[in-house]
# Entry
Amino acid sequence: MADKVKIWFDAEADYLEVQFAEAAGSMKETRHDAVMERVDAQGRVIGFSVLGVSRFKKGKPLEAELASTSRSAVVREKPRKKYGK
# Structure
């Protein structure tokens, strides 16, 4: 785990980003329509972002599991249905 984690929140854009490492990376889609992963050149997860943070209700948080970095990174959400439905 990272010694320091950087977190950005833009209330106007309703966007949250968490960065585990200060490294060049690119955003990668996940199975959840609100979550993107940031991965480095080797495919290791170095952060993630959530768009539409305010849509997640108190008491019903988004649960995301970042897979092992030794294989393709995916986010698994619980429950498996999309928010708002």
Summary: The chain has no helices and seven strands. The chain has one domain: 6-78.
